[in-house]
Amino acid sequence: MEIEIPLPRRVGDDEQSLNHLLSLLPWNLDGGITRIIFDWERVEFLTPSATVALAAGIRKWRQSGRIVDFRNAETSSAYTYLQRIDFFACCGIESPESFQRHLSRDRFFPVTQISNMDDVQSVSTQLARCISPESADSSDPEETGLLDLVEYSISELATNVVQHSQSSGFVSAQYYENTDRVIVAIADSGIGIRESFRVHGSPHWSESMSDLKAIEKSLEYTVSSRTHLVSAWGESVNAGVGLTFLKMLATTAGGDFYVISGAGCYGIRSGRTLAVESNFGGTLCIMSFQRSKVSNFFEMFSQIKIDLKNIRGDGHEGMFQ
């Protein structure tokens, strides 16, 4: 038996259109479904969040032994763009190209798979240099703010995939000159945030924890599904502060921040916090910011540490030194 999924015309970086796309994806398939067909006829525009979410899902369905086919992709308005960002290649779909490739510097970073910590290091560096090539060879923090912010953000998000998801992930980024906005997104089709709390024996886990509550808990400072685990050196294997910093960095830089996992979606958009239902068989993180509002990354980071230190007052302030 097969199912056909007509993809929407446009998927932006807002929760409405993104969650509409995610609601179409068949995460809970019965054993009778052996083939999934995606119809691209109407597709005109997809943000990085949509492409990495689809790539993660397609990897999962193929690993489960199902056939994934594309229909009308070649006639879609987005076809050449999807080729340029290596979407088809990441999905294992042959797509002969009839154009000459040029450097994507300062515009986009193609969909790229992350499977281990070596990937984390190389991809975070490459992506930062792609989005901010003009500061790649500078050592002046007044000039490298964008590069430093992107490299830190991707490193944190990709490390979460490797440490928590029990799966590979996909990352991509795009700079939109007309809005001065950079969007980075990373998705995996792993166990999800709620299940990560359970399998790692976290003291924060409870049977009544919903996907949304798990996301909200993971965004609290010093909380992750692994903060209670201790390394051979007697230190926590995960400080649980990465997502907290990313959320605050995004809003400081005039951007938005989303975490979607399972049936939960938590976001901060235009300074407004939202918590809604979603549908994603893994975890999807999206972060955006305005280039013009990113100055000295280390000053931004230091101010956030000061803010968190002042908030805490519970004896754990030392981790922010």
Q: Could you characterize what this model shows?
A:
The chain is of the alpha/beta class and 321 residues long. It contains ten helices and ten strands. It has helices at residues 15-24, 48-63, 79-84, 87-90, 117-131, 145-165, 192-199, 211-218, 242-252, 297-312, and strands at residues 2-6, 10-11, 35-39, 45-46, 67-71, 108-114, 169-176, 181-188, 257-269, 272-290. The strands form three sheets. A five-stranded antiparallel β-sheet has the order 6-7-8-10-9, with helices on both faces. A three-stranded parallel β-sheet has the order 1-3-5. Strand 7 (169-176) and strand 8 (181-188) form a beta hairpin. Helix 6 (145-165) runs antiparallel to helix 9 and helix 7 (192-199) packs across helix 8. The longest helix has 21 residues, at 145-165. The protein is globular. It starts with a strand and ends in a 9-residue tail after the last helix.
Tally the beta strands: 10
Strand content: 15-25%
> What structural class is derived from the secondary structure elements?
alpha/beta
User: Portion of residues in helices?
Assistant: 25-40%
Q: What is the topological layout?
A:
Layout (H helix, E strand, L loop, with lengths): L1 E5 L3 E2 L3 H10 L10 E5 L5 E2 L1 H16 L3 E5 L7 H6 L2 H4 L17 E7 L2 H15 L13 H21 L3 E8 L4 E8 L3 H8 L11 H8 L23 H11 L4 E13 L2 E19 L6 H16 L9
Parallel strand pairs: 1-3, 2-4, 3-5
Antiparallel strand pairs: 6-7, 7-8, 8-10, 9-10
Helix pairs in contact: 5-6, 6-9, 7-8, 9-10
